[in-house]
Design a protein that fits this description.
Layout lengths: L4 H53 L16 H10 L3 E6 L5 H17 L10 H12 L5 E6 L10 H7 L8 E5 L2 E5 L1 H5 L2 E3 L9 E3 L1 H13 L4 E9 L2 E2 L6 H12 L4 E7 L12 E5 L7 H12 L7 E5 L8 H9 L2 E3 L3 E3 L5 E2 L2 E9 L16 E4 L4 E3 L7 E8 L4 E4 L4 E2 L8 E11 L9 E9 L7 H5 L6 H13 L11 E3 L8 H31 L2
Parallel strand pairs: 1-2, 7-9, 7-10, 10-11, 11-22
Antiparallel strand pairs: 1-3, 3-4, 5-6, 6-23, 7-8, 12-17, 13-19, 14-15, 15-16, 15-18, 18-21, 19-20, 21-22
Length: 540
């Protein structure tokens, strides 16, 4: 008898087997799609992680701007990679986007007050700070940069404020290492991009911020900072004439404080300068003579109970001549200030000012090697000759600055110039006294005290120290001071960077959009495509 249910059963079995095969095929293709999608996402994530790491270590961003505004100087890069051995933290008390607001505000100010439409790109600073992090992390030390909002989180800078000893305002940069804290305040931030007044034909901007930032990093990492008593007062009044105010502040703030010398203003007559709190005394352009007590203070400071290891910097005011006690003190160190000015022929004075002449550094075993920079001039305005006296004493006296051989003397009292007597004339001299500190003849260890005399305070006027692309004053004077004080931490003068008026460069917001697109958007698109492929295969 024919079984009618068998064909039906066979058809049912075939249908079930076909369904199982189809389900197996779907599972196999679906699983493959899932695996492929997961692998692609993992690869993209790993690629982004590697890229993020490499960005911290190597320059992944190409600076295609004509003025190379986003790159650091060779001097800073070399310091960060080879000399920085400590960890430094930099706290910026505003957001990255706020730098664009600073740019807009500065550009509006120049337009409103001066009618000048200028590009003042403060939005370059966040990228510059990233470069500091990147290059420092390639060496023995490190730099980390973070941004804080003082309105939302005022306690974020509390510990720095306590060490710093003063309030820290918005739009500042805190630079710290260990228990050392320095702050670039709003004024310092504002002077990072300034007008180049040396250009007489057009107005352009220069970036001087790198010098400020690098100097502050050096300051907080200096193991043995030089402590300076800056004699700004004499019996409670300014020690110098008001015409020297700019030169005095330039010497203290732009040359010394900016390069690892910790300055404290003192009254040379009333304050105690003999303590171990100071390594050096600076006497800027005194307009009155010192009494015998002050002279004794200076002598005792340099002698240091027979231990020496102290220094004094004396800077003259050529218009102040009635200083018998000071002159006697200098003569005891084999130094004499000549009256009048030193002038030079037209080839060696600066611009149209015959009273500002070009000078040059002088190297010796005692002062170290000071290279003359032929591309930048050392400007010596209203300078007097510093003569070395031939005396049979313990002083070792050497010139550190001199004029060229076309220099001659000019007596302003008689308005006469001796143009027939031309020669190189010293305008900066160091006199040294030393003592052997080790009785072992083989070691020959010595300690010394030095007196540096400069023939004019106007050598340290702010513009001569600021415009490092034109003048070598900052670099030469700093080298002389570092050699004299045996300053261990190297200091470098970072040249200003001329900024072009128009460049093709992404703004901070554009950079942010690019980052979001690469790190978030592309991986998200890949993930969505993978899910679509998976769902389509599952529904087949």
């Amino acid at each position: 008898m024919y079984n009618m249910s068998k064909p039906i059963a066979d058809e049912k079995n075939n249908t079930e087997q076909s369904k199982k095969k189809k389900d197996l095929r779907r599972f196999k293709y679906g699983s493959a799609a899932v695996v492929i999608t997961v692998l692609v996402i993992v690869i993209v994530v790993i690629f982004n992680l590697i890229a993020a790491y490499l960005v911290k270590r190597t320059p992944m961003k190409l600076d295609l701007t004509g003025d190379k505004r986003y790159e650091l100087s060779d001097e800073t890069i070399n310091y960060l990679k080879n000399d920085l051995s400590q960890d430094v933290e930099m706290i910026v008390t505003c957001s990255k986007e706020d730098f664009e607001s600073i740019s807009s505000e500065m550009e509006f100010m120049y337009l409103y007050y001066y009618g000048l439409q200028l590009d003042i790109p403060y939005d370059m600073l966040p990228i510059i700070l990233e470069k500091y992090e990147m290059y420092a992390n390639q060496g023995k030390g490190s730099i980390t940069v973070r941004y804080v909002d003082l309105e939302k989180d005022p306690q974020a800078v509390a510990k720095y404020t306590e060490i710093y000893g003063s309030e820290i305002e918005e739009r500042s940069i805190i630079v710290s290492s260990g228990d050392r804290v320095r702050v670039i305040d709003q004024t310092g931030m504002g002077s990072m991009i300034t007008a180049d007044s040396s250009n007489q034909t057009s107005i352009s901007m220069v970036f001087a911020g790198e010098s400020t930032i690098t100097s502050e990093i050096m300051n907080v990492t200096d193991a043995n900072p030089i402590r300076v008593a800056f004699a700004s007062k004499l019996n409670s009044t300014d020690i110098y004439n008001t015409s020297y105010a700019d030169a005095a502040s330039g010497l203290r703030d732009k040359l010394l404080s900016k390069n690892g010398y910790f300055c404290t203003d003192v009254d040379i007559a009333l304050d105690d300068i003999s303590t171990a709190d100071y390594d050096m005394i600076v006497i800027p352009m005194p307009s009155r003579d010192f009494d015998e007590k002050i002279i004794e203070k200076l002598s005792s400071f340099l002698y240091n109970d027979g231990m020496y290891d102290r220094d004094v910097v004396f800077i003259s005011d050529p218009l102040t001549t009635n200083l018998p006690n000071i002159y006697e003190f200098l003569a005891d160190w084999s130094i004499e200030l000549q009256s009048g000015y030193v002038l030079s022929d037209s080839e060696k004075y600066m611009g149209n000012d015959p009273f500002t002449i070009q000078a040059k550094p002088v190297s010796s075993d005692e002062t170290g090697t000071i290279e003359e920079d032929n591309s930048r001039a050392f400007a010596a305005p209203y300078v007097q000759e510093v003569k070395i006296l031939d005396r049979n004493n313990e002083n070792i006296t050497n010139p550190v600055l001199s004029t060229y051989d076309t220099a001659f003397s000019y007596e302003f009292a008689t308005n006469k110039a001796d143009t027939n007597d031309t020669a190189e004339r010293n305008i900066g001299v160091i006199s040294k006294r030393e003592i052997q500190t080790d009785t072992n003849i083989e070691s020959l260890a010595y300690a010394d005290s030095n007196l540096l005399v400069l023939g004019s305070g106007r050598m340290t006027e702010a513009q001569l120290l600021d415009y490092t692309n034109l003048y070598s004053n900052a670099n030469v004077l700093l080298t002389i001071l570092n050699n004299m004080t045996k300053k261990e931490t190297n200091t470098v003068i970072i040249p200003e960077k001329a900024l072009q008026s128009a460049v093709i460069a992404p703004s901070a917001n554009q950079n942010k959009v690019i980052k979001i697109f690469v790190i978030v958007v592309i991986p998200a698109v890949v993930a969505v495509i993978g899910l679509v492929v998976l769902l389509r295969r599952r529904n087949r």
